Amino acid sequence: MVVSAINARVCHARVVNELSLLLVEDDRQLSAMLAELLSSEGYQVSAAADGHTALHWGLTRPFDILVVDRGLPAIEGVDLIGRLRSRGVSTPALVLTARGTLEDRIEGLDAGADDYLVKPFEVEELLARLRALLRRHSDGAEVVRMGRAVLDVATRRVVFSDGSAEVELSGREADLLNLLAHRPRQVFTRDELLHKVFDDAEQPGAVDTYVHYLRRKLGRDVIRTVHGVGYRMGSL
Question: How far is C-alpha 73 from the geometric centre of its chain's CA atoms?
Fold first, then answer.
């Protein structure tokens, strides 16, 4: 039922802004189908087949959301989430598993999972739950850490941890810095930044202009130029 529903959904997928998703599932057939489904919905999917790999990736790569099975090799799914939480990883996590007793659900939520969905599941419900988790996480993400500084999204201020400076940004400057800081390893093309930050309302040169503004306010290293490609987050 789940497999056929996934296949049907992929054929009618809609593309949304890409968000990075870590899928942890040891059933390789189901993992491949879920990865295809989620990719067709606009997620950048990294698929891990065991808890050890997932722990390493969760600690070293930036993800927007996690989808985690329970009965995993090496590190059990609930234990995996608990270890990530204990090391400061607050990425929203949905447990997707066949273990659906009340005790199982309570154990998963108490370990740090944000939601719990039992197999077999409806594809539309899975996608809706992921959207809800992302909305809740986005609503609560008021501060973005960037090395020795933080961006307060609500006030559009960058505050340095040593108290040496507090810099006020314009709305566009804050939006651009917020996007880059949330995905510090990703290189964005000018067209991608224009679409995500400026809604295609400006000429491509607007991206370079606001990069210049941010560098003037925060230092040249705050945004790195990747020649021939675009820009990525630098250092503060």
Answer: 24
- Average pLDDT rounded to a whole number, residues 34-54: 93
Which of 108, 86, 84, 110 is closest to 96 using CA atoms?
108
The pLDDT of residue 227 is above 50 = yes
Q: For residue 120, say if its preceding peptide bond is cis, omega within 30 degrees of 0.
A: yes
Number of other CB atoms surrounding residue 63 within 10 Å: 20
Q: What are 134-150's pLDDT values in tens digits?
A: 877 765 546 677 777 88
Per-residue pLDDT at 14 exceeds 50: no
Q: Which residues pair with 224 in a beta bridge?
A: 232
SS3 154: coil
Alpha-carbon distance of 6 to 144, in angstroms, equals 35
CB 25 within 8 A of CB 34: yes
Span 195-205, pLDDT tens digits = 888 765 557 68
Q: Are 15 and 42 in contact (CB under 8 A)?
A: yes
Sheet with 230-233, edge to edge strand ranges = 188-189, 230-233, 223-226
Backbone angles phi, psi at 183, to 5 degrees: -130, 70
Reported for 106-110, long-range contacts at CB under 8 A and 24+ positions apart, including other chains, are 107/78, 108/70, 108/77, 108/78, 108/81
- Hunting for tokens 């968000």 — which residue is that? 19
For the chain, report the end-to-end CA distance as a whole number of angstroms. Answer: 50
